[in-house]
Specification:
Shape: globular
Structural class: alpha/beta
Strand content: 15-25%
Helix content: 25-40%
Length: 536
């Protein structure tokens, strides 16, 4: 019989990207923190983020301009006070990162002490100024590695790698007074057993849910775990219909999930049809610098119109030295597939990239469930509206992780440690001998989400998707009830729940706005509202 294992901490952080690491480091000075990571600590979306982080550092730029650009990209659905809060706190968050040791690129031609050189700022689609701090084309890696090293070295942070969070433990689920989070059941993948984590506060920093689609730029762990767990615990979600499809992912049979940063277009790359002609000027006066939803739909339209497997991103008109210096990671990676980006156009396709909706929170990251916080891509703060402005994603992680940290710090002395929690009960389940069921359901889910709930939607496609989703949910729940948990089963259970939320939100929005485009409702409504779903 396996030994019952219970961990205990002041704060349990589920997720180990920029948001989770930032929160853990802020709280570790005054509390014990457990940092839970589904895979290796660095295996998350932060590590693969290329472009950079938006913040006003240039004297010719203003916070008001950053706010205005974000509101325009959000297509009328941003929460303006939240946008202002984020933009106003951006520089302090960046300065904290710099203090932690993150090395952003600086201007090379500065005449004077190099330590005082200004940061090299790039511009991306939707921005009116150069305000993107970056570390070449591997900004996320620089942030992730720097914060990860600090977290591993901190005596008050316990890192649990290769652990899946299964479900939150709440007082309501245990028939105790109130409605507060008490911890979580987690699955230790190495020894294949369920353990319990007891905590005064829990923060979900699990990222988005783009793995619900067949083609995605995200790493394999982006399976909507936090959103599904929060929903099952009674938290509202909002704007799940707004899934950002990154316009430019490398199209190659052996190149899974490789994103080609927005900064390529920011530095002058053109999008071309297979015959070499440009097409973005025909769709938007901003051409390649239009917001991602416009660019992704334009590419999707051209591919379908031409029957083409891809379009091409071309930066060959720039000097080779310039291209290699600014995009060393992309240059090296593409060479592995026989593509020299200094001389060859790059074959690209859109792919699911970012979840703009999520768990509803306030300005401190607090959810509907007492003691439960949600930060980063897993959350709906109101910042992104109907479309996320490029390089506001890592910024949101940092700003709201710091805000959540301050909030939790003020409550630490008021909340006692939960009492004893019941261990996980698997007395009525057995080992599965039908993994093929999971594999089949997994493939079916991601395929119909891509076909029916993708870049372009219709009422009929959404209705079909919801019916298919309901059938899969029933099958998966029966499987979950009868067999011991596994990584694939836990992810599939969460993904099918998130798929339902995406479809239901999409069905409620009777217009086309931002990332949600429905051919049966092409118009814009005069008074748009967020789409909010409430658990039963």
């Amino acid at each position: 019989m396996k030994q019952v294992v219970e961990h205990q901490s002041d704060l349990l952080v589920i997720g180990s990207g920029a948001a989770g690491l930032t929160l853990a480091l802020h709280l570790a000075e005054k509390s014990k923190v457990i940092l839970l990571s589904k895979g290796p600590l660095s295996e998350g979306s932060t590590y693969y983020a290329q472009g950079g982080i938006a913040s006003v550092f240039d004297e010719g730029d203003t916070v008001a301009s950053h706010v205005a650009d974000t509101l325009v990209a959000g297509a009328g659905l941003c929460d303006e006070p939240v946008v202002k809060f984020t933009a106003e706190n951006a520089k302090a968050s960046m300065e904290w990162l710099i203090k932690c040791g993150v090395a952003f690129d600086k201007e090379e031609n500065y005449q004077g002490d190099s330590s005082n050189a200004p940061y090299h700022l790039t511009r991306e689609g939707g921005h009116s100024h150069r305000r993107i701090l970056h570390a070449a084309d591997a900004t996320g890696k620089e942030v992730q590695v720097t914060l990860e090293d600090r977290a591993r070295a901190h005596p008050n942070i316990q890192v649990l790698e290769r652990y899946n969070a299964i479900d939150l433990i709440t007082s309501r689920k245990l028939n105790r007074p109130g409605n507060r989070v008490l911890g979580a059941y987690v699955w230790n993948r190495d020894v294949e057993q369920v353990e319990t984590v007891k905590a005064r506060f829990v923060a979900l920093a699990t990222g988005g849910s783009s793995k619900v689609y067949q083609y995605t730029s995200n790493p394999d762990i982006a399976s909507g775990d936090g959103i599904a767990m929060a929903w099952r615990s009674g938290c509202r979600v909002a704007n799940m219909e707004f899934n950002q499809f990154h316009p430019t992912c490398l199209y190659h049979a052996d190149a899974r999930n490789f994103l080609l940063t927005e900064a390529l277009r920011g530095e002058g790359a053109y999008l071309r049809r297979p015959d070499g002609t440009r097409f973005m000027p025909e769709f938007d006066e901003r051409a390649e610098l239009a917001p991602r939803d416009i660019v992704a739909r334009a590419i999707d339209y051209e591919m379908k119109r031409l029957g083409s497997d891809c379009v091409y991103l071309d930066i060959t008109h720039k000097p080779a030295d310039f291209v290699i210096k600014h995009f060393p990671t992309i240059h090296k990676r593409c060479l592995e597939f026989g593509i020299d980006i200094t001389t060859d156009p790059i074959p690209v396709v859109p792919a699911a990239h970012y979840t703009c909706g999520g768990i509803m929170t306030d300005l401190h990251g607090q959810t509907d469930l007492n003691g439960l916080y949600a930060i980063g891509e897993v959350a709906y703060t109101g910042l992104h509206g109907a479309n996320r402005l490029a390089s506001n994603s890592l910024l949101e992680c940092l700003v709201f992780a710091r805000a959540a940290g301050e909030d939790i710090e003020g409550l630490l002395h008021k909340i006692p440690m939960p009492g004893q929690l019941p261990p996980w009960d698997e007395s009525k389940v057995s080992n599965s001998d039908e993994e093929v069921v999971i594999a089949h359901n997994w493939h079916e889910l991601r395929l119909f989400m891509w076909d029916y709930v993708g870049i372009v939607r219709s009422d009929k496609r959404l209705e079909r998707a919801l019916r298919r989703c309901a059938m899969l949910q029933q099958e998966i729940q029966e499987y979950y009830s009868n067999f011991r948990v596994s990584n694939n089963l836990l992810e599939l259970r969460n993904l099918v729940q998130v798929a339902e939320l995406i479809i239901r939100c999409a069905m409620e929005r009777k217009e086309s706005r931002g990332l949600h485009y429905n051919i049966d409702h092409p118009q814009l409504l005069d008074n748009p509202k967020p789409t909010i779903l409430q658990p039963d």
